[in-house]
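Lecture 7 notes: from sequence to structure.
We start with the chain below.
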Amino acid sequence: MDDWYFLALKVTTRAIEVGGIAIIVLGILGSSVAVLWQILHGHSGSTAFNLYRSNVGRAILLGLEFLVAADIINTVAIEPTLQSLLILGGIVLIRTFLSFSLEVEIEGRWPWDRHKGESGSSSRQTA
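Predicted structure tokens for the same chain:
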């Protein structure tokens, strides 16, 4: 009974990893098509480039979320050793740093500053 359980977990983990990789690859391809479409329809190069960077960054962020989820499942359910836990901690730290960096690049502000601009504009509308 344990054999099929671990096999199912490994297959699930691998599927989530493949999904994360596919999201990144398809996001880059879709972003490339979108930027070419923008350029062919007369938008400026800087506007198209900013759109491209934003879309690629979002695809990478979403793909990283899937890859972190697969690593967590693998560490907690399949290989719960101290060494795998330490490796997971390092991977999560690196991917979290990448996520924050990409978020700053895409949005132009820290993730925890996201609502400051929104609350300021909504308070002006109600006053």
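Points to note: The helical segments are 2-40, 45-78, 82-107, 114-126. The chain is about 90% helix and 0% strand.
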